[in-house]
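Example record

The entry below shows one chain as it appears in the dataset: sequence first, then structure tokens.
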Amino acid sequence: MEKAAIGIGSNLGDSVRTCLDAIEALRNGPAVSILKTSSFFRTRPVGFAGQNWFVNAAVLCETALEPQPLLDFLLELEKDFGRVRTVRWGPRTLDLDIIFFGSRQVDLPGLQIPHPRMHERLFVLAPLAEVEPEWVHPALGLSVDQMRDRLLETDHGQEIQKLDVS
């Protein structure tokens, strides 16, 4: 079993409900055991600004799957939730990303682990800091907390708000 973190996001439809349902689908999926779930955050879109704000979260899990089968499972879940890929960084019903997979570094077509832009995105780091703050990026040598703090010091344009999801 390997620890992995999965980022969850949605900005179409009832995004909170979609993220809650996606977490439940992950929980019921093959060879995935959820250890922790972050709070939900409302975040300004990055990359393609002309769209609704996102709801983002992260889960820490253990899995017996290797990275590619885990990605395949996540992509199937996205399709089950109605995701259609049209515009890069555009609106989506559900986005599931492998943020890290133990301390492995993977660079394959369609799969890069750790997530290649995680250190630049508060919508990844804020939820991740709630579930695994001490995980250290194998290439950068920085913990999640350190990456988040550096980003907060240098990039004041990213907006994020913790949601009360009861």
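Notes for this example: The first helix runs from residue 15 to 27. Strands lie at 2-10, 32-37, 41-43, 54-63, 95-101, 106-108, 111-113, 160-162.
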